[in-house]
Amino acid sequence: MTAALTVTNMSKSFAGPRVLDSVSLSVEPGEIRALVGENGSGKSTLIKILAGFHVPDEGSAEVAGESLHLGHGEASEALGLRFVHQDLGLVNTLDSVDNIALGVGYPSFRGRIRWRQERKRAREALADLGYDFDIRRPAGSLAMSERTALAVARALAPRQTPAKVLILDEPTANLPAAEAQRLFQLTRRVAESGMAVMFVSHHFDEVFGLAQSVTVLRDGKHVITRPVAGLNEDQLIELVIGRQLEQVTHDAKAAERRDVVLQVSGLDCDVLNNVDMVVHAGEIVGIAGITGSGRDEVATALFGGTDRSGEVTINGAAVPKLRPDRSMAMGMGLVPAERHANAAFMQSTLRENITVVGTGLHWRNGFLRKGRERSDVAVWLERLDVRPRNSEFAMSDLSGGNQQKVVLARWLRMGPKVLILNEPTQGVDVGAKSDIHKLVDEAAADGTAVLVISTDHEELVRLCHRVLVLRRGKIADEISGGRMDHDLITAATIGRDRAGAA
Amino acid sequence: MTVNEQMPLDPDVQPKAGGPSARARRSWAATLGLDRFSGLYVWAALILLFALWVPHLFLTATNFRIIAGSQAITAMVALGLIVPVACGAFDLSIGGTLGMGVCIVVWFQANHHGFILGIFAALAFGLLVGLVNAFVVVVLHVDSFIATLGMGSILSAGTTWVTGGFQVANGISPHFTAIGQKQVLGLPLPVYYMVILAIILWWLLEYTPAGRYLYSVGGNPQAARLAGIRVGRITTSAFVICGVVAAFAGVMLAAELGSSSPDVGVPYLLPAFTAVFLGATQILPGRVNVLGTLIAIFLLATGVKGLQLAGAPGYINDLFNGVALIIAVALAVRFTQRKKA
């Protein structure tokens, strides 16, 4: 039997080291293959090459024995490769019929669209996947697993050539556990129909619960392809990170316990489910978790930017929800993720960007004293080494790292009791990153309780006294002391309880 | 909403901005003041042009008085409009609010309630319009463009209802018309009110935390919210200020005209927007502001008046305003884009 998909000696580099280095693999019809590896191991690059998004430097691919013309999305589709990308690519305002048509058009169109036929077709396609919901509802109102099913239905909708391989990129990243189970059943049905399925995953439970075989990539290289049977989680983690977890070298920074400043109990919002945490004065606590674990929701929920339930207190005083102004007045500061969208005023000056918080400090007798603002801001630009060091430059004149420092200065200037940092060094160059780390250390040394939320696990190791690991909306692990290690954090985020506990 | 903001923020391009070439260009342009004061240059050029072209008509004290006096009301409406536009909201109901201001203050006098009460009633009505606009935009989350377009239409109906569809001119107190028609140092009083209003708004926008918050909300509402600014409250204040200022301009217009008629406010809507957006290319480029708006108003008025004196037909007013707005904003966008490239 010919393999459904064969990849031979695939290599790719983007101006520098190889992100994909001579990778070969093959998947049989009816097989469910998991593709696992750390961030940057080359999984996404491989999938984007197969989708025709990137052109490889070397290598070839065959689909059911036919050679794939690489670098052309239509060629991949013509040979029977079907993709469901992580963001699903649905238009939230359109219903199921229209979303399916985005991929394949309206097959009933002969001068007019025959809606009844189209709806029947969509309903049957979803029924084949084990789903039955109102197809007239806009995609945005569907449950996450229904949305995923819709994306799969679109990928599998009949075209000129039959689908031979279904490739899913982190299909369960945004799914609660129960809905993930439904997706597993769906995937099995697809495989039983004779298609090959390859899925990228960070969840080990889905590797073990769903896949028959697993391919591990590390640093762009193919490590192993083997059946899942006979493999345990410890062995898989070792294959992924390339060494045993016991070789922990770091010690967490010694925590000097002082008074509790931030206390959170029963925090519920969106994915987060009954989360408790405590941050002491002078302590830096990290939060880690994969996408969909609730990691990204913690910061804005605590600050009041998004709705929540549960109790948040600073020095014993309750912080009301949905009131960022009250949170701020009570001594909380937030450096949100995605600076452009959530923090920066690109057309405003650095001075205005910094003094947007605590504007009233230089308001005397009915006038803002701009000279005093300038000298105040100059001190902070100096302290954070922002370049160019001119308070009247527009934010858009600065590089990403300098913009981030300006946003940080905004809050450090206020001397907050609690400082929440979400991805503090996102899109920041190495030099600025180390500066920012020093500033966070200094803030903590001054008694600020710091919460750092990050997907950069080395950053968490560098900064934190202890790290809380979120999994599916709950705190699944706490890492501190001798267990402080970025691989261990990674392992804990992808699903092993009490990783490395000796 | 500022002019620059309508360009996409390209993250790849952003960090490179401010490189050596951009710096050089900036200093070159800054020396001439072309980035901030181009309007003053154009204004001077227009004055020079018409002074040479039609000297006996253009270069007269009367002409300058007419230009100043005729623009006072438009300038007040435009100044009020700056406030919501600064925080990213449109107020298309200013024409209607102005019209209702005229009708209310005249109605009070025609029905023998006195003009003082009429003035307060008109201002209170402007405040009410601002609150309703804010409620629809902030609480009901209707886009400000649509919300105030609807409100403008409702107010237009209101003016017809109050006036009965006819011009009303009976019972107007001479004390009331004096407010709008009396001249001091050769200029009608509304010019002075307009200047006072401009000073107050300049102070509000440039020298108070509230002004800073307005621009922050306009620049990035999400970031403003996460910086602890109460976006809803700021937006509400902006609509209220705009409504009260438009109603005040209506009172002044009624005092100038000595009468009211339906739809008297509508012709003020577009010139006010033109002035605000054209003004955003001046003084504080990329940002709607008081001085820029005033420069825009008087630049346009000078150009139109000069052309009229030189024999241009009546429709030159709208034509000149439209062409000037598009060219000026296009040039400003181009300038900012080049700076970033």
What is the name of the CATH topology of chain B?
Answer: ABC transporter involved in vitamin B12 uptake, BtuC
Strand content of chain A: 15-25%
Tell me the structural class of chain B. mainly alpha
Of all protein chain pairs, which has the greatest interface, and how many residues does each chain bring to it?
Answer: A-B, 38 and 33 residues
- How would you classify the helix and strand content of chain A by structural class? alpha/beta
**Fraction in helix of chain B:** over 70%
Number of helices of chain B: 15
Architecture per CATH nomenclature, i.e. the level-2 architecture of the largest domain in chain A:
3-Layer(aba) Sandwich
Number of strands of chain B: 2
Strand order of the main beta sheet of chain A, please? 6-7-8-3-9-10
Query: What's the count of strands of chain A?
Result: 22
Broad CATH class of the largest domain in chain A = Alpha Beta
- Radius of gyration of chain B, in Å, reads 21 Å
Task: List segments of chain A where confidence is low: pLDDT < 50 over at least 5 consecutive residues.
Answer: 497-502
Distance between the termini of chain B: 22 Å
Regarding quaternary structure, how should these chains be classified? heterodimer
Q: End-to-end span of chain A in angstroms?
A: 46 Å
